[in-house]
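Justification of computing resources. Each target in the renewal requires a structure prediction run like the one illustrated here; the chain below, 240 residues long, is used simply to show the kind of job we budget for.
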Amino acid sequence: MIENTSSYLNKNVLYEKKHRYMMILKEINVLYNQADSEVENNKIPPFKAKQIKDMYNQTLIGLIEEGLEYQYIKDNSNSANDIISITIDGINYRCKNTDIKELLNDRYQDVMGIEYRGPNLKKNVPDENDYKIPDIPKNNPNIDIQSFIPPKVYISPDNDFTKEKKTSIFSILKQVITTIILFAIIGGIILFIWGDNGRRTTIKNGWDNLVNQFENTQNSKSIENNIEESSIENIEDITE
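Resulting structure tokens:
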């Protein structure tokens, strides 16, 4: 018996998504070290290294979204110095917690699995000279290191576009009717502006008729309500 093709292929996948991120991160790390050296030697401007650091940080977030364990290095004396760290094959990759917060914004807790513990961030122009990857502090008594395994968050259930969603016939009709009305209004406006006087008069008369019908409908409803209210009052008087 031949197995389902998709399940057969899945069994032979050598690299998961997190492994791809790992390979990308290793290459970006090499690129960053080269750019860092070039900035120090005035071969390239700092913002070029900053661009590479941003890619580096985004790749770290990708690994965390895939549920990879990370270390939170807390500086109890200054939360602006907090660091997010991941070690892969003996190599440590890290970035500032504030950088992660700026990139994730409201998604921080969903992705990281913890509440944001850093300083309040001000909305300002990014510092293009802020290209340095933070060093791990040594011999600092104010440092506290904790490990976390984040939830594997990539696509939320509400926004999972890989699954087919059922479409109601009523929603389709509503969209069709709305589209027809919209095109009719646009066509009427075009004809009214660029059409001849006869067409303008026809459109204006048609619009006036619609308005009058609407007003008559509202008036009839108002009369019916008044009749119902008076009938109820008469019934109440009789019962009393």
